[in-house]
Backbone:
């Protein structure tokens, strides 16, 4: 945690995970903030932990899936319920095996969703706008294997 001029900045991370079909992994938050809403897996960075290490840990704790960080895509700031500001660094993460996620830790549920379904779900404030702004909700272009000699 880094102290700001008046309120603390709280370092957090989020994991943006998609499967081969382009579905997005979301968790239903069991606790505030955004309790009961769908969001990407994530949480606070612990003391002495890198952001990359935190995002892989949070993904495993909340979904039971293990992954590898590909790249950082952006940062959002959200007001923390007890004061201060969450500074959330979001990363694209590839999971080792695309299994059925199992909710754990701070997640009440975990599931895969088509990007178009996000508009019909109660999602955490700003989630859809951030993902769209980073170009992560657009249509997926399928990879077509034309075989040898093409």
Residues:
């Amino acid at each position: 945690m880094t102290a700001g001029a008046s309120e603390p900045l709280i370092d957090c991370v989020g994991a943006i995970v998609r499967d081969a079909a382009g579905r997005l992994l979301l968790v239903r938050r069991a606790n505030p903030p955004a309790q009961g809403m769908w969001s990407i897996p994530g949480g606070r960075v612990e003391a002495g932990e890198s952001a990359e290490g935190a995002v892989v840990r949070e993904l495993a704790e909340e979904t039971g899936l293990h992954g590898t960080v590909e790249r950082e895509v952006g940062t959002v700031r959200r007001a923390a319920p007890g004061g201060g500001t969450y500074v959330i660094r979001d990363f694209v993460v590839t999971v080792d095996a695309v299994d059925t996620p199992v909710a754990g830790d701070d997640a009440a549920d975990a599931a895969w969703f088509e990007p178009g379904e996000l508009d019909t779900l109660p999602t955490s404030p700003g989630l859809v706008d951030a993902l769209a702004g980073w170009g992560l909700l657009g249509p997926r272009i399928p990879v077509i294997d034309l075989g040898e000699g093409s």
About this structure: The longest strand covers residues 67-79. The chain has one domain: 2-131. Helices lie at 51-63, 127-133. The longest helix spans residues 51-63.
